[in-house]
């Protein structure tokens, strides 16, 4: 009897310690995540400028998002950005990782160059590329002219090149992370597998297709999920390049959310766009998890 | 994500050793197949590095030289005074200070709160543990843009708009990724160590500070680098929460500089150089630590 009370009391002290250690993050979870999340969903069904009274408007915001022409364009721009950027990042990242890990003692040396943009802020990267892409002073355009291209585009202003140019900048900056993650994955592949393949007379291409890519597939899945999420939220470059006056063809969804929320102060409408963004990200991630069974290979 | 040990340092070394015996530089015999490999990597490195050189040398050009056709990398006349113009054009000293202390405080607090929560989740039994941990994991999917509007309203209520508290407190008190990362490592610490200390009469706090924290050194350094870099380079939150110049961080100052000196390209490049250089120098010195930190942070999720 006394023993049972003792055990009970000890369990309660244990639980109290658990909550004590958890307290700071638990406060943060409630105050800065769960609370705001619930509030955001309430807001998405409301009309509110942040000051006056909040009115319930039902699905009006959610329908409004579909009727807004600029937003329709922005969704397409964002999807186009993702469609170019994510495969671009994964392919160039894998390509250079594959070769950089063959460089032996020089691997860390090359890594400095490829990783340097990763430690640089998006704003500084934006400033550098604002120069490199400005038609009046662009060395890239000058190079193209000297190669016989008569009229290089105004990269950031021409509707057709704005998104691809920003994709280029983002790949330049994000490549280092991809390389580091791929190199870590490649170094996990046991050399004995490759030696066995060599003995069987496999070509480099066969080894790549049948050994490297399957064994790397969990890394590829992880990088593809996180890149798609990041890519759908692209904002910094656009805002830095264009401030509040981005041409219609360069708007992305987060750029519109920020403008609508913090310039027009339509909190409810902006929240509804953000809810859509959340649903799109959930759906894309869910789809990738469903599709992984067909191509991702787990060794453990 | 699959690696269990994540000791990339050891792996790097081991891989290098392996390569040296077969087809690396230095140790082994020269092989003609190295030439295309290194040509490719040098070309790639140049593409990555030339924009930085362009930034640095453009920052030293007189304004009229930038319109020269075709553009040249090196200035004809060196004009380092652009840096003085840039330094005077915005309050860089204060911005450095703001950036350093915001990023520093967030890093320290994040490491403390995350390791505490990680310890609770990994080692202490309390009702609701699984559910709460599940909630933490689920929030990883929530885009910041969804919570930022309510967060702005909350910060307004607390009168924290245009103060650094709005940038320091929320990320310090909530970092689901950090909690998850550290929890994985706490789970890897042998339970016997704690039991032994417990028999010796050590309480939870003693065990946490004298056994758990020292053994979490590697992931704490990794998470610290990850958090500090993210905060130092952060643009979105400061842009939304700060209004007055004296509170600006480095990225905001560069953004402001671009608006105010839009045609003064050389000063903008000087400002950009000043913004980018400290972190680039730190990176070159602590290359291995930083790369490992980032890789380790990624590989555990």
TrEMBL record, chain A:
The chain crosses the membrane at residues 16-45, 79-100, 112-132, 162-184, 215-235, 267-291. The keyword Transport applies. It is a multi-pass membrane protein. It is found in: Cell membrane. It comes from Kribbella pratensis. It comes from the Bacteria. This is Carbohydrate ABC transporter membrane protein 1 (CUT1 family). PROSITE patterns: ABC_TM1. Keywords: Cell membrane, Membrane, Transmembrane, Transmembrane helix, Transport. Residues 75-288 form the ABC transmembrane type-1 domain. The keyword Transmembrane applies. InterPro entries: ABC_transporter_permease (IPR051393), MetI-like (IPR000515), MetI-like_sf (IPR035906). Belongs to the binding-protein-dependent transport system permease family.
TrEMBL record, chain B:
Pfam families: BPD_transp_1 (PF00528). It is found in: Cell membrane. Residues 96-286 form the ABC transmembrane type-1 domain. The keyword Lyase does not apply. It comes from the Bacteria. SUPFAM superfamilies: MetI-like (SSF161098). PROSITE patterns: ABC_TM1. It is a multi-pass membrane protein. InterPro entries: MetI-like (IPR000515), MetI-like_sf (IPR035906). This is Multiple sugar transport system permease protein. It comes from Kribbella pratensis.
């Amino acid at each position: 009897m006394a023993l049972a009370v003792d055990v009970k009391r000890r369990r309660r002290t244990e639980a109290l310690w658990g909550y004590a250690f958890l307290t700071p993050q638990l406060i943060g979870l409630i105050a800065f995540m769960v609370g705001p999340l619930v509030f955001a969903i309430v807001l998405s069904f409301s009309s509110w400028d942040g000051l006056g009274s909040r009115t319930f408007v039902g699905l009006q915001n959610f329908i409004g998002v579909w009727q807004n022409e600029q937003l329709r364009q922005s969704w397409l721009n964002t999807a186009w950005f993702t469609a170019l950027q994510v495969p671009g990042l994964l392919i160039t990242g894998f390509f250079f990782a594959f070769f950089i890990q063959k460089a032996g003692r020089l691997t860390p040396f090359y890594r400095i160059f490829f990783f340097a943009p990763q430690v640089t802020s998006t704003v500084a990267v934006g400033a550098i590329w604002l120069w490199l892409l400005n038609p009046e002073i662009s060395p890239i355009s000058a190079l193209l002219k000297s190669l016989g291209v008569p009229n290089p585009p105004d990269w950031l202003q021409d509707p057709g090149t704005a998104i691809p140019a920003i994709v280029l900048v983002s790949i330049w900056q994000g490549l280092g992370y991809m390389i580091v993650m791929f190199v870590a994955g490649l170094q996990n592949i046991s050399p004995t597998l490759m030696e066995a393949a060599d003995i069987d007379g496999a070509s480099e291409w066969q080894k790549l297709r049948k050994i490297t890519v399957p064994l790397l597939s969990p890394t590829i899945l992880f990088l593809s999920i996180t890149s798609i999420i990041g890519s759908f939220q692209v904002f910094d470059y656009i805002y830095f390049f264009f401030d509040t006056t981005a041409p219609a063809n360069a708007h992305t969804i987060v750029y519109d959310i920020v403008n609508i929320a913090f310039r027009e102060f339509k909190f409810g409408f902006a929240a509804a766009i953000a809810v859509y963004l959340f649903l799109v990200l959930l759906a894309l991630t869910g789809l990738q998890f469903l599709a992984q069974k067909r191509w991702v290979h787990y060794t453990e | 994500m699959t690696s269990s040990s994540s000791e990339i340092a050891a792996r790097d070394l081991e891989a290098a050793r392996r390569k040296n015996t077969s087809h690396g530089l230095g140790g082994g015999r020269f092989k003609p197949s190295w030439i295309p490999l290194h040509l490719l990597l040098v070309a790639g490195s140049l593409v990555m590095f030339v924009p930085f050189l362009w930034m640095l040398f453009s920052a030293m050009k007189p304004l009229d030289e930038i319109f020269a056709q075709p553009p040249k990398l090196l200035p004809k006349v060196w004009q380092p005074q652009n840096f003085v113009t840039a330094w005077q054009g915005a309050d860089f000293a204060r911005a450095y200070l703001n950036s350093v202390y915001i990023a520093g405080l967030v890093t320290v607090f994040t490491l403390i709160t995350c390791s505490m929560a990680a310890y609770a989740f990994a080692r202490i039994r309390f009702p609701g543990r699984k559910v709460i941990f599940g909630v933490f994991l689920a929030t990883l999917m929530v885009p910041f843009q969804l919570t930022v509007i309510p967060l702005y309203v909350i910060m307004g209520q607390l009168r924290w708009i245009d103060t650094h508290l709005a940038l320091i407190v929320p990320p310090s008190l909530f970092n689901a990724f950090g909690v998850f990362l550290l929890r994985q490592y706490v789970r890897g610490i042998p339970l016997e160590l704690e039991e032994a200390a417990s028999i010796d009469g050590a309480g939870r706090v003693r065990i946490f500070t004298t056994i758990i924290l020292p053994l979490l050194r590697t992931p704490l350094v990794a998470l610290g680098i990850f958090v500090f870099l993210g905060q130092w380079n952060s643009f979105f939150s400061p842009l939304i929460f700060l209004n007055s110049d004296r509170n600006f961080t480095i990225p905001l100052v560069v953004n402001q500089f671009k608006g105010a000196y839009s045609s003064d390209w050389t000063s903008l490049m000087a400002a950009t150089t000043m913004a980018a250089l400290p972190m680039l120098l730190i990176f070159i010195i602590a290359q291995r630590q930083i790369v490992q930190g980032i890789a380790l942070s990624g590989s555990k999720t």
